[in-house]
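User:
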Amino acid sequence: MFPNLFHELEGRNLPTVLDHLEVCKTVEEAVEVIEFFEKKGEISTEYANFLKSNHSLLKSLIGTRERGEYTRRGLGD
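Assistant: Predicted structure:
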């Protein structure tokens, strides 16, 4: 159906769950993002539980990036 999709995405750095956590404003918002990624199957349940239980890691990531900085840092939309 999309024969060139792999080649179009090849070489692009797509944002990960950690990139999305950096734009969160609160721990509650970060937990929602983690649960979304887990529900979509993009991260494992174990990794999701690790992230949710590690509040010091979440606090160090939250607010370190503004929305719209993905392109400037070489990440895809």
